[in-house]
Amino acid sequence: MAGIIGYGAYIPRNRIKVEEIAKVWGADAPSYKKGLMLEEKSVPSPDQDTITMSVEASKYALKRAKIDPREIGAVYVGSESHPYAVKPSGATPLPVVVSVSR
Asked: pTM surpassing 0.70?
């Protein structure tokens, strides 16, 4: 079978209030809230990065798809930030961690 048959997402538990973000940037908190349409944002723990969050999202994707990880032929990671500018983020370690066959 080819195509997307499952997906996963992971959102860190930690939160930061929009007021704190505005304070750091020297901005007006009400305008930040209105512009972002948020009260707070998620923030990763010091030990979390693109790869660790991708692993968690992959676990959810596998559960949702109800398939054996060894049946997966490719894994793609989407992120707006990468922990390693000179190495691929997740493309190498992620399939190994979730037992995807290559």
From this structure: no
